[in-house]
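Hello,

Our lab assistant flagged a job as stuck in the queue for most of the afternoon. It eventually completed. Since we weren't sure the result was trustworthy after the delay, we are filing this so someone can double-check. Below is the sequence as submitted and the structure that was eventually returned. Let us know if re-running is recommended.
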Amino acid sequence: MLFDFHGTLAQVEDPVRWVTQAAASCGTVLERPRATVLADRLVTAGRAGGPRPYRIPPHLAEVWAERDLYPPAHRAAFAGLAATVTTGVDGLDDALYERVLDPDGWVGYADTVPVLARLRDAGVPTAVVSNIGFDIRQISAKLGFADLVDTFVLSYEVARCKPDPGIFTTACAGLRVDPERALMVGDTAADAGAAGAGCLTLVLPESPPGAVHGLAAVLDLVGTRR
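-- returned structure --
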């Protein structure tokens, strides 16, 4: 069993909280109206874990292309996008990026731990397969499911990004499971690229932070629901 991370098992925090907490770490208290306006502008510019930026400035094109392969490129890309927004808060661009690295900046879906625990009890091996430029193991531990996952296959560690079939075959090899016997669960077309490796795929559109995400459907598909 293969799972995507962001949008499948967990979500980034609410944008206004993201901006408010980052500003606080810079010594600035933002009132909600101002934080709301800044959050809208910063999400539009590009947020790690958020929607695709409306445009990539030419000076960030190279690091953007490599963001999920090299941690420095990931930081440079997203801190750089934040820096394109005039916020009036010194150091906010870096502080916003630090929130993405902080487990406090993430929220697990309500059904993530119960479903992964049921799969573990049933003896189903699981992997997290993520396009990402930093280590999510500590975040997964804080959200309560790191010990329920057998292996993490992260793009920056294996030098392959979804939808490249190689990242999925690497995950299957780590689980000692033939791709034809694996199910990839994600929320994007890149996750559905697992079909190119021979895996079955299930795409669930992302849900709001902390919501029930519909992951129980996985238990029906693998026959482990009680």
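-- support follow-up --
The delay was a queue issue, not a problem with the job. The result is valid. The chain has two domains: 2-10+106-222, 13-105. DSSP finds eleven helices and seven strands in the chain.
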